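User: quick one, sequence for these tokens?
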């Protein structure tokens, strides 16, 4: 009974609202870091930052101005992509140990399987047809 009452109340309050987007997720992780920092450092500034972060999370979550919130989220994602895109191939190399990655001059990322021997391997770009040299520092485990 009480559970269904809270469900209907929550649904009625959040209809037409912004909800959770990437900025709210980022702010929530930032808030968790501030709470952990507040355990070790007793400072009014950290408490004030926590309060400001909680207020902005609530404001963004309950905002009805969807156009502005979507635009802000798009700007945030563009900035985030600009910061993390240079590291995309490095992250791929760490996660995928069975392939080699090389960025072509046309902007395409070429994915090739690990060779049987360590050394230089040549591949052609499927997009522009340019021949690329890949240096393999590890070999396929048999």
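Assistant:
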């Amino acid at each position: 009974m009480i559970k269904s009452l809270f469900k209907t109340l929550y649904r009625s309050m959040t209809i037409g609202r912004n909800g959770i987007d990437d900025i709210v997720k980022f702010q929530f992780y930032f808030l968790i870091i501030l709470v952990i920092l507040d355990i070790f450092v007793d400072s009014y500034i950290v408490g004030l930052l926590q309060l400001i972060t909680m207020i902005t999370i609530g404001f963004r979550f309950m905002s009805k101005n969807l156009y502005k919130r979507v635009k802000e989220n798009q700007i945030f994602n563009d900035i985030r992509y600009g910061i993390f895109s240079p590291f995309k191939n490095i992250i791929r190399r760490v996660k995928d140990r069975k392939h080699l990655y090389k960025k072509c001059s046309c902007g395409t990322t070429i994915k090739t399987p690990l060779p049987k021997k360590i050394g230089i391997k040549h591949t052609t770009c499927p997009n522009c047809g340019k021949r690329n040299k890949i240096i393999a520092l590890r070999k396929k485990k048999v």
